[in-house]
């Protein structure tokens, strides 16, 4: 009887947890809102960039530790899924969730890149990732990679392009160099999301790889001091 109840309890999780191909609006809202709050706190804080990198890295380590524990203690896993199920994917039930990768990607960006590039690459993750997924799920009929569509990639490009353009206008005058920089930045951001098709979490690839690309781009087309 206890085993049957356990199986029934587990199957109820399956009705809550979403697949990667689902629209999963609540997860996207959570993704954008928590990231926006973090960016707001960082931008308006008097603390150093290194301080925030350490804080967010601590969150990543705590997240990995929690996933490690829940994957070995079913009772704890059941509690986590009961609380966080609406935000989780089915693949995360017995694996690693996206949260620690999200925090790790942003913390590495803060550690290795300049303030402006760290902010922009983090904004790519906060906004471009859920928006490209949204348009990919709704309109993604032309597959260019496993689980990646042309429509989602285009949405990601335009999101990253506009983020870069409007953010960089605070430190650079509008001109051909800024438009070129923003267009290439859009390509970099979209490409960093597509790389996740090779079983690498895009919460990590987007801020780290786009930050690296933006750093190299800024060397040849200076926009950020």
Per-chain topology:
Elements lengths: L1 H15 L8 H19 L5 H22 L3 H11 L13 H15 L2 H25 L3 E3 L2 E2 H19 L7 H19 L7 H19 L5
Antiparallel strand pairs: 1-2
Helix pairs in contact: 2-6, 3-5, 5-6, 5-9, 6-7, 6-9, 7-8, 8-9
Structure summarized in a few sentences:
Helices cover 73% and strands 2% of the residues. By secondary structure, it is an all-alpha fold.
Uncertain spans: 1-15
Spatial separation of the terminal alpha carbons = 67 Å
Characterize the quaternary organization of these chains.
single chain
Strand order of the largest sheet: 1-2
Helix and strand run: HHHHHHEEHHH
Radius of gyration: 19 Å
How many separate domains?
A: 1
Class based on secondary structure composition and strand pairing: mainly alpha
Number of helices: 9
Largest sheet: 2 strands, antiparallel
Tally of strands: 2
Large-scale geometry: globular
Beta-strand content:
under 5%
Polypeptide structure, described:
With 225 residues, the protein is mostly helical. The chain has one domain (24-220). The protein has nine helices and two strands. A hairpin with a 2-residue loop joins strand 1 and strand 2 (148-149). Helix 5 (98-112) packs antiparallel against helix 6 (115-139), helix 6 (115-139) packs across helix 9 (202-220) and helix 8 (176-194) packs antiparallel against helix 9. The chain is globular, with a radius of gyration of 19 Å. The model is unreliable at 1-15 (pLDDT under 50).
């Amino acid at each position: 009887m206890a085993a049957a109840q356990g199986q029934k309890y587990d199957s109820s999780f399956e009705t809550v947890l979403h697949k990667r191909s689902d629209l999963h609006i609540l997860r996207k809202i959570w993704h954008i809102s928590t990231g926006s709050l973090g960016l707001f706190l960082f931008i308006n804080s008097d603390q150093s960039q290194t301080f925030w990198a350490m804080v967010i890295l601590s969150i990543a380590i705590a997240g990995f530790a929690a996933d490690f524990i829940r994957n070995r203690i079913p009772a704890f896993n059941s509690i986590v899924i009961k609380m966080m199920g609406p935000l989780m994917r089915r693949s995360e039930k017995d694996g690693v969730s996206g949260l620690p990768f999200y925090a790790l990607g942003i913390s590495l960006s803060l550690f290795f890149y300049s303030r402006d590039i760290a902010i922009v690459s983090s904004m790519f993750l906060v906004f471009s990732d859920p928006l490209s997924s949204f348009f990919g799920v709704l309109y993604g009929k032309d597959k260019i990679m496993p689980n990646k569509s042309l429509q989602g990639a285009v949405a990601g490009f335009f999101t990253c392009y506009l983020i870069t353009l409007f953010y960089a206008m605070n430190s650079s005058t509008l001109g051909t160099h800024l438009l070129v920089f923003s267009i290439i930045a859009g390509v970099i951001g979209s490409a960093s999301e597509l790389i996740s098709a090779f079983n690498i979490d895009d919460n990590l690839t987007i801020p780290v790889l786009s930050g690296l690309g933006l750093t190299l781009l800024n060397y040849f087309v200076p926009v950020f001091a």
